[in-house]
Design brief:
The protein is of the alpha+beta class. About 40% of the residues lie in helices and about 20% in strands. The protein is built from 20 helices and 20 strands. Helix 5 packs parallel to helix 7. The two termini are about 60 Å apart.
């Protein structure tokens, strides 16, 4: 076997075998200060060497042995701008060569040649990897396995530090990766640091921050997950005091890891073998309980999007479930116990059971919601991730977030009994649309709806009854638009301002004479005018709001004797007058058709039988496309949704691409299910967030043959 260890001083240039690339390069040399020196570099099949010069007998000054773990950082423009040189960096086990040249092609040629040599090398295996393979091969022979453990301390608990990772990682830094801004060093360095963090768990007064830190590093640096699993298996093997609280911390971290990340196939087999071995060696112990919990978790775990919250980690450390509050339309809420693996679809099913909605023809979904915004949750999303994201959002926006269980696909509004809780859902969600200005109606109808809402909430009118604010009863956008329109008319402005609008402005002083020193007379007047306009707008808004509220209260007085059920029924009767009742409206910034028609600021309404286009605020649809006419639909680029109906292509520019796609998937799936052409699918929410086109089999029968991107 050929040795890669070469005596640098004895071997000269003429003895070098199989030279591949050679030439002059500058190398960065670090001493009291950083400087560059010119050397003759030679690349062979085994190493990258540099000499004093190209002549025969030149002295070798250094060697970087090339293995599969070496890495190359290619030339970048930033270094060239800063130094005037194109650079490549070659990382080895002991050395790092930072090389420079004036010519870009030369730098690329060297980088390609070195990388090609690295790619031909056999993968390096660490002692731990070799031992894991031995254990796998002899797992049915306890005596051999015991012998392997006893004669290889690397597999057993240690109080000493770890000087190298247990698994192989490329040499080099992370400065060319996405995570360099988070302060990480090389993967090898981070692996050693993580082992130090694991050892700190034994003496830490509060282990949760350390556990969160380890999980965050594993979330950011995916390659370290198997390493941490191997380190934890090591620290839970042959522990001198296995039943103490300090050493159970390793099991607690292993529990958190198992509920957050899955290891690779080889490490997963090794972990399962370790868990079974612990259970057989220590039955009915805390370690046995943790091992059993971890084994079950590994069957369910999917890779998490967020690091578990403080509360979730505490629950996992004690192997318990978390309590989750789910709100629903109206003042009600339910509390459910969830695990780290509970999905939105599971919560939807449990909420339907709790509220007696299993037989409903309509479908439901969970929504992330705050006072100003809401978004449906994908059916396969983990509730633990959603709750963790709420902590981040609340700290950033100072607004309270919650999970809300609501109607998703309104397939049959007529079958909803007026005595059911589903009728309350319909009423509350209809009112949400009214307040958001998404139910086109005349002002008289909107005032009637507001008065019925008051009757439903408060009962008969009373002079001392506390009344909700107007923005909870009446669409504020309509009020503001009417006031702005009245103020924009010439009659609403003072005569002096009307005259000023028609006069050209004159410049008394040359440009720059007083600029930057004092406000000019014109600027002061403009600022004063804006302040006056804002005050006038606010005053008019208050006046208009008072007038509208007065009209609503008068109507409320006329509803005396209406009970809650009658008020809700009357409210929904008025709302059903709109032909689009029951659809979900999405704002479209721009719309264009292949026939040449286009428009801006529209609503795209997705309903149980069709997709329709509305001008915002108008009740009549501009166009409507029954599902039988739709051939395909999907996302064509980052912000464009495309529908093909017959021989027409319709393009919509919107920020709600995924939501539109998933809702249409759900409606088409419901059509298929109702016609008995597929399995009884859970259509509360599409699980995948990927985008793609869905092609329908025929125009007459909107059957969903395949949903590659959004299985429902």
């Amino acid at each position: 076997m050929k040795s890669l260890i070469i005596d640098k001083n004895k071997m000269g240039l003429e003895e070098e075998p199989e030279l591949l690339v050679k030439g002059w390069l500058l190398r960065e040399v670090r001493g009291n200060w950083i400087k560059q020196r010119r050397y003759w570099f030679v690349l062979s099949q085994d190493s990258l060497d540099y000499y004093t010069g190209p002549e025969k007998g030149a002295r070798r000054l250094g060697t970087l042995v090339l293995t599969s773990l070496c890495s190359v950082i290619w030339p970048d423009k930033q270094t060239y701008k800063e130094t005037g040189y194109w650079s490549i960096t070659v990382y080895g086990r002991k050395h790092c060569y930072r090389l420079y040249t004036k010519h870009f092609n030369e730098a690329v040629h060297w980088a390609c040649a070195v990388q090609k040599i690295i790619d031909t090398k056999a993968p390096v295996e660490t002692p731990t990897q070799l031992l894991i393979r031995d254990i796998e091969e002899n797992k049915f022979n306890p005596e051999v396995v015991e012998h392997i453990y006893q004669h290889n301390p690397i597999l057993k608990y240690t109080q000493g530090p770890l000087y190298a990772p247990l698994l192989p990682f490329p040499y080099g830094s992370l400065e060319h990766t996405y995570h360099s801004g988070k302060g990480y060093g090389s993967v090898r360095e981070e692996a050693v640091k993580l082992f130090n963090c694991l050892q700190q768990l034994e003496s830490a007064r509060e282990p949760v921050p350390i556990i969160q830190g380890v999980l965050q590093t594993c979330l950011d640096l995916r390659t370290l997950r198997d390493e941490v699993y191997c380190q934890l298996v090591k620290q839970t093997s042959y522990t001198p005091a296995p039943y103490t609280a300090a050493h159970l911390r390793y099991w607690q971290l292993l529990t958190c890891m198992s509920c957050t990340f899955l290891p690779g196939p080889t490490v997963l087999k090794y972990l399962r073998f370790h868990l079974k071995r612990i259970q057989s060696q220590s039955p009915e112990s805390e370690m046995d309980n943790y091992a059993s919990f971890i084994s079950e978790a590994l069957e369910k775990t999917k890779c998490r999007e967020c690091v578990p919250s403080w509360e979730e980690i505490q629950m996992l450390m004690s192997r318990q479930e978390m309590l989750c509050t789910v709100h629903y339309p109206g003042p009600g809420c339910c509390q459910l116990y969830i695990s780290s693996h509970t999905t939105a679809n599971e919560v939807v099913r449990r909420m339907q059971e709790k509220l007696g909605l299993q037989e409903s023809k309509n479908t439901f979904a969970l929504y992330e919601q705050n006072a100003l915004w809401e978004q449906p949750v994908a059916g396969g999303a983990l509730i633990a991730d959603i709750l963790t994201s709420f902590f981040t959002k609340e700290s950033e926006s100072k607004s309270q977030w919650k999970l809300c269980f609501k109607l998703y696909c309104l397939l049959d509004a007529d079958s909803i009994s007026a005595d059911s809780i589903e009728y309350l859902f319909l009423f509350e969600q209809c009112h949400e649309m009214v307040v958001r200005g998404q139910l086109p109606a005349c002002e008289e109808d909107l005032q009637a709806l507001a008065s019925l809402r008051l009757q439903c909430l408060m009962g008969d009118f009373g002079t001392h009854a506390p009344c909700p604010p107007l923005d909870e009863l009446f669409p504020g956008d309509m009020l503001e638009a009417r006031v702005l329109m009245s103020l924009s008319s010439p009659q609403a402005l003072p005569p002096c301002l009307v005259a000023a609008q028609g006069c050209p402005t004159t410049q008394r002083f040359p440009t720059g004479l007083l600029a930057g020193t004092l406000w000019s007379h014109t600027a002061t007047a403009a600022h004063k005018q804006k302040v006056e306009q804002d005050m006038r707008l606010l005053s008019r808004l208050k006046e208009e709001a008072a007038a509208v509220m007065g009209s609503i209260l008068e109507r409320w007085k006329g509803l005396a004797g209406y009970n809650r059920r009658d008020s809700m029924a009357a409210y929904l009767t008025i709302a059903r007058q709109w032909s689009g009742f029951g659809c979900t409206l999405y704002e479209v910034d721009f719309y264009i058709s292949s026939t040449g028609s286009f428009s801006q600021k529209l609503w795209l309404g997705v309903a149980a039988t069709s997709v329709s286009l509305y001008r915002q605020g108008e009740a009549e649809a501009l166009e409507s496309f029954p599902y039988g006419q739709i051939c395909s639909y999907g996302v064509s680029d980052s912000n464009t949704f495309k529908i093909t109906a017959g021989d027409r292509d319709l393009l919509f520019e919107t920020t709600k691409l995924t939501e539109i796609m998933q809702l249409m998937n759900a409606y088409f799936s419901a059509i298929r299910r109702q016609r008995g052409k597929g399995e009884d699918a859970d259509i509360s929410k599409a699980e995948s967030k990927d985008v793609g086109f869905h092609h329908l089999a025929s125009m007459q029968t909107p059957t969903l043959l395949e949903l590659p991107s959004h299985p429902v």
